Automatic annotation (TrEMBL):
Species name: Teichococcus aestuarii
A Pfam family per the record: PALP
One GO MF term: L-serine ammonia-lyase activity
Catalytic activity: O-phospho-L-homoserine + H2O = L-threonine + phosphate
Enzyme's top EC category: lyase
Name of the protein in question: Threonine synthase
Gene: thrC
Residues where N6-(pyridoxal phosphate)lysine is found: 101
Matches recorded under NCBIfam families: thrC (TIGR00260)
Keywords: Amino-acid biosynthesis, Lyase, Pyridoxal phosphate, Threonine biosynthesis
Cofactor: pyridoxal 5'-phosphate
Length: 409
């Protein structure tokens, strides 16, 4: 195993390194450990330990991440005008801390421990921080988590509950990113920020593709819709299919979904640009993808290339569309997602309008984060809640239920 720069090809030994020594480019893990699945771990992605980067089984920190369900959603299909394909939901809310970040953090913290890290630091829009806090607690390591001051309460509470040191920094996420990089250096802590900065963490996302293909009985989906911040999850999906022989245009078309209030990759895609430019101040309810990429625009450029190589596209969705998608997921598919997690559903009408979802298309939406983390948007939705001051009057309660059930939801 070694680290290779995706820009200049320079190779480095397999250590904790965050950028190419020659050009500053993004590093990628090449090779696999070949490790036999260690006994005693909970079910999940370490079943495929051989494909990941950890060579010392004693270093693995797992809470049972990965191997999440892929659910067909017939009632949701019927509720989307013009949709005549198969809609599948990859339910990443089921990961231990409630988002797909657990895949990257389990891989990244395990490798950091193998390489002798004394503690971990992470800049996060909330979910990566919650994941790092949980895995550091499980490993008995100190954790410093840095989040933007406007991070949703549910995520802040979750991080604090695990005992991490939590630093709230005013302004956009990129400021937290810079502070994390500086603190990691000063303390000798591993940086588990989940942009493309830690190649061992990003490497942990590549099993998503093979899981989807196995769950579809060996079929490759036509489209995979990915909520996209800087894009490690897009790369994970692309790499996973490539590893099984479905690289670039032979793999699924990848759709990067962003929020209209923070859409640097969509803007570059639509302009036909080669490079992604940083966004200003994000303004959206989708906290999980509010990443303006200031100072690491190259991450977005890399993701843009992956999307183009797949023959895919990039779509921005409004906050209203996100609320509508959350409602549909909750009421037509039984899934409770945070705004970001519902963004692929919000993107479907735009893809249909562009003719990208032909009849019979197999469409996979990655539902990346749990509704428990940020329930505010649901609280503003009309709900069928009724006070029952006299529960003894069964006939009246039954009448109430009958009329409430008959209302359109
Ligand atoms: C971090 C996050 C994303 C974005 O993932 P990237 O790999 O950074 O592009 C999407 N959804 C949720 C819920 C997230 O927490
Ligand atoms: Zn390089």
């Amino acid at each position: 195993m070694y680290l290779r720069c995706i820009e200049c090809g320079h190779t480095h030994p397999p250590t904790l390194r965050y950028a190419c020594a020659a050009c500053g480019g993004i590093l990628r893990v090449e090779g696999e450990s070949g490790l036999a699945p260690p006994p005693g771990l909970p079910p999940g992605m370490w079943r495929h330990a051989a494909r990941l980067g950890v060579t010392d089984p004693g270093a693995i920190v797992s809470l049972g991440e990965g191997e999440t369900p892929l659910l067909r959603a017939p009632h949701l299909e019927a509720a989307i005008p013009g949709f005549r394909g198969e809609l599948w939901l990859k339910d990443e809310t089921r990961n231990p801390s409630g988002s797909f970040k657990d895949r990257a953090i389990s891989a990244g913290i395990s490798k950091a421990i193998e390489l002798g890290a004394r503690g971990v630091v992470c800049a996060s829009s909330g979910n990566a921080g919650a994941s790092v806090a949980a895995y550091a607690a499980r490993a008995g390591l100190g954790a410093i988590i840095i989040v933007p001051a406007h991070t949703p309460d549910g995520k802040v509470t979750q991080i604090a509950a695990h005992g991490a040191v939590l630093l709230k920094v005013p302004g956009h996420y990129s400021r937290s990113y810079d502070l994390a990089a500086a603190l990691a250096e000063r303390h000798g802590y591993a940086n588990l920020t989940t942009t493309f900065i830690n190649p061992w963490a990003v490497d942990g996302l590549k099993l998503v593709g093979p899981e989807i293909r196995a769950q579809l009985g060996g079929r490759v989906p036509d489209l995979v819709l990915v909520p996209t911040g800087s894009g490690p999850l897009v790369e994970g999906v692309a790499r996973g299919f490539a590893a099984e022989g479905f690289a670039g245009a032979a793999g699924p078309r990848l759709v990067a979904v962003q929020a209209e209030g923070c859409a640097p990759i969509v803007r570059a895609f639509e302009a036909g640009a080669e490079r992604v430019e940083a966004w200003g101040m994000p303004d959206t309810i989708a906290s999980g993808i509010s990443d303006p990429l200031i100072g690491y625009e190259r991450d977005g450029t890399h993701t843009l290339r992956l999307v183009r190589q797949s023959g895919g596209t990039a779509v921005a969705v409004s906050d209203d569309a996100l609320r509508g998608a959350m409602r549909l997921l909750a009421r037509r598919a039984g899934l409770y997602a945070e705004p970001t997690g519902a963004s692929p559903i919000a993107a479907l009408p735009a893809l249909l309008a562009r003719g990208l979802v032909p009849e019979g298309a197999v469409v996979v939406c990655l539902i990346t984060g749990h509704g428990f983390k940020d329930g505010r948007a649901y609280q503003e939705m009309p709900a069928r809640i009724h006070p029952v001051p006299e529960p003894g009057d069964l006939a009246a309660v039954a009448r109430l239920c009958e009329s409430a059930l008959a209302e359109k939801d």
